[in-house]
Design goal:
seven-stranded mixed β-sheet, alpha/beta, globular
Length: 167
Amino acid sequence: MLLETEKMAEAECVFAQLEQTAAFLMAKHILMYHSLPDELSTRDFLRKWNGEKKFYLPRVNGVNLEVLPYEESRLELGAFHIEEPTGNETVNPDMLELIVVPAVAYDRKGNRLGRGKGFYDRLLSSTKATKVGVAYEFQIVDEVPVEQHDVPMDIIISPSGVTIVRR
């Protein structure tokens, strides 16, 4: 288990690397996630870039994720105790250029092990946006189980570096 200072340092390192990628620099419309305690914290990154980039967050609706604009003042606890955006201004995932995705684990081929409900896979399969997995170092493993519906990442970023996954 990482100490809080280690978690903060790893998140800072990962998001500093994300900021240097062409995918991030070129994207204007970015879907982020609002982090759970065991995920890389996105809060500082969202605050830093909000205004220069247009951020969106997912909101659970039944078995799917909706995409809504991010406004720090318009968040409330939603499904699974995750802070989600409020309001009715859902946007079409087609407008997203970059999606930053959390996971339980990633492998070096870009495969992602999520929490088992398939929310992100359903969303990711409906968009051509660049898919970026962000992870603590311990979340990078040799292999994760893959099912037919799983959507792999295009880029994986951990504290040790950026991996571009070639397809």
